[in-house]
Amino acid sequence: MSHDLRIADTILQQLGGKRFIAITGVHDIHTNGDDLVMSLIKNQSKANRLQIKYDFGMDLYIMRFYRETGGKFNKNYEWIKHEIKEIKTFDEIYFDQLTTIFREFTGIETRMPRVIGINA
Q1: Could you report the per-residue pLDDT of 55-82, keeping only the tens digit for each?
Q2: What pTM value is reported for the model?
Q3: DSSP reduced 3-state for 65
Q4: Is residue 114 one of the residues assigned to a domain?
């Protein structure tokens, strides 16, 4: 496993791994070096992409929420160029803050709710 994939895998595991993917509906997950990039479902932040980058020197993370659009024809057959709109960047994040920031900023739940009082 390459260095880049280990970092991306570690970030994903700190978010919650496969459970995080299943519960949040994130998709198109890939790495661009020392980061993890994913597509988000529709959410309150209006961001459709999230990049989480690991800062080796600080041993902290950077979470960048942005909206990527374009590179396609609209309904009037006009070409819309590819654009990236920055929504919000969170700097100097500890690993245990990743899911909290994700949940609070997007409004997407990151854990299955615990149901009390149901007999199986």
Answers
A1: 888 889 999 999 999 788 889 988 888 9
A2: 0.84
A3: strand
A4: no
